């Protein structure tokens, strides 16, 4: 019940309601998160079976499709690599650092196994949504869950399509901007002396961030993808490389750690905290929810970027979407997990009173020194959060255009997004991290229903050369 206690205290500080009502609200949040997590996991399992991804040969062949060299660019648009970087920028955020570390602290190392398992089944979900969006985009010029819901399910499902679009717009404004911008302001403050005027620094961060976002957002997809293409590969390589160096220097046996992760996931130890059953369920819940929150599979956001590229091959673009999960979860999240497990003592790692940022900083400081690790980690968090903001700014912009073709809607959205990004720097969010995770999974529900229904009803209509949906 530790997570409920933390949520309750945060809720009490934010909402002027009685404590028992806070308990009820927090339990409701957790129950909704559990139900949606299981739903998304089951969706991934079903789609994995339908696409034949239980076959290692077929899975590997699909992952190698973007590198086959047989596909060509047949239309205008950003390059497939730029599309992948834009999509990666949207999902590679502070959750890859803070979220994974917090997941281990609260759920034990076994929660990493559930992140891996969830991400494996998410490969099929990601492929399906990007494949459908690219196929619709090839025919109509635009691709998104809203488009393939209306095309393959019919006009009677248009309310479902508009519901997804509205939820995506709200998620971009309230969680895609403010949560990440808060992380940026915290990273900047961590570099300042203790007697610095923190409120003024937060205000300046908010103003500068809002201006930068507005300038980039006004340039459309090409400007956003240009920044993403420049920043995402560099930050991913540098951060992952630093993690690998620390893991190697720690002298820990990676195979032994992997065995412990799997063992604790299936037979959790009661020594961490509470009963065996409680730890197992907590590791399962945190692992599944953080896995989904990290790679965004099923939410329908990645197709907005990946279906807008110059490649019109749905199969290849679907495979590019799978690489988004490989890089985000199996490489970056795993690197963070092994870093803190190898370099942070258990008495610190499982101390819920310490922040996840402190733990990662402690891990780097073992070999790089406290000053260098502090500066480097702050820079990584700022870059991760900023690219995530850019990705979500584009997602929300597309949804605003889909909901209304008028320029006024776009201007209102751009203004609201920048304001929320600035506000995120000014106020500590606390409970919003958990609410954001739940809200983003609610966003996935209309899309998951569409994916399962379309792949079942329209299988013959979706057959095509090289398609895994045949």
**How would you sum up the major sheet?**
none
Number of strands: 0
CATH architecture: Up-down Bundle
**Beta-strand residue percentage:** under 5%
Describe the overall structure.
This protein is an all-alpha fold and 470 residues long. It has one domain: Up-down Bundle (Amino acid/polyamine transporter I). The protein is built from 20 helices and no strands. It has helices spanning 2-14, 19-51, 56-63, 80-91, 98-107, 110-140, 145-153, 158-174, 178-190, 198-217, 220-250, 254-266, 276-295, 302-306, 314-343, 346-349, 356-368, 370-403, 407-426, 432-457. Helix 6 packs antiparallel against helix 15 (314-343). The chain is globular.
Keywords:
single chain, 20 helices, disordered N terminus, Amino acid/polyamine transporter I, 470 residues, mainly alpha, 77% helix
């Amino acid at each position: 019940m530790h997570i409920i206690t933390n949520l309750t205290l945060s809720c009490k500080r934010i909402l002027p309601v009685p404590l028992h009502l806070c308990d009820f609200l927090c339990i409701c949040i957790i129950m909704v998160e559990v139900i949606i997590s299981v739903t998304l996991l089951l969706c991934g399992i079903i789609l994995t079976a339908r696409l034949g991804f239980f076959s290692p040969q077929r899975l590997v062949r699909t992952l190698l499709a973007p590198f086959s060299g047989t596909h060509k660019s047949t239309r205008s648009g950003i390059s497939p690599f730029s599309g992948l970087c834009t999509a990666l920028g949207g999902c590679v955020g502070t959750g890859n650092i803070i979220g994974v570390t917090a997941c281990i602290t609260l759920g034990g190392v076994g929660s990493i196994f559930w992140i891996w398992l969830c991400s494996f089944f998410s490969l099929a979900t990601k492929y399906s949504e990007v494949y459908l969006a690219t196929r619709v985009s090839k025919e109509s010029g635009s691709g998104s869950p809203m488009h393939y819901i209306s095309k393959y399910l019919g006009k009677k499902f248009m309310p479902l399509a508009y519901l997804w679009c509205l939820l995506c717009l709200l998620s971009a404004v309230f969680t895609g901007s403010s949560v990440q911008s808060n992380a940026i302001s915290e990273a900047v403050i961590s570099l300042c002396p203790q007697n610095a005027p923190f409120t003024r620094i937060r205000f300046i961060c908010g103003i500068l961030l809002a201006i930068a976002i507005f300038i980039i957002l006004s340039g459309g997809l090409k400007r956003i993808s240009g920044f993403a293409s420049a920043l995402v590969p560099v930050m991913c390589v540098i951060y992952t490389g630093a993690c690998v160096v620390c893991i190697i220097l720690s002298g820990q046996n990676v195979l032994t750690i992997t065995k412990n992760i799997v063992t604790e996931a299936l037979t959790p130890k009661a020594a961490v905290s509470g009963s065996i059953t409680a730890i197992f369920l907590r590791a399962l819940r945190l692992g599944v929810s953080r896995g989904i929150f990290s790679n965004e599979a099923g939410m329908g956001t990645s197709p907005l970027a990946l279906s807008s590229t110059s490649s019109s091959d749905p199969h290849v673009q679907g495979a590019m979407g799978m690489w988004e999960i490989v890089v985000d979860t199996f490489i970056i999240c795993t690197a963070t997990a092994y870093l803190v497990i190898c370099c942070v003592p258990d008495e610190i790692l499982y101390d819920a009173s310490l922040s996840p940022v402190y733990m990662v900083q402690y891990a780097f400081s073992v070999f790089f020194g406290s000053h260098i690790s502090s500066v480097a980690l702050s820079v990584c968090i700022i870059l991760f959060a900023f690219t995530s903001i850019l990705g979500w700014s584009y997602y929300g912009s597309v949804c605003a255009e889909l909901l209304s073709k008028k320029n006024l809607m776009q201007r209102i959205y751009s203004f609201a997004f920048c304001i929320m990004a600035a506000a995120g720097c000014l106020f500590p969010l606390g409970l919003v991290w958990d609410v954001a995770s739940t809200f983003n999974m609610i966003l996935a529900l209309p899309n998951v229903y569409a994916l399962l229904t379309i792949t079942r009803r329209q299988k013959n209509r979706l057959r095509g050369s090289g398609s895994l949906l045949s």
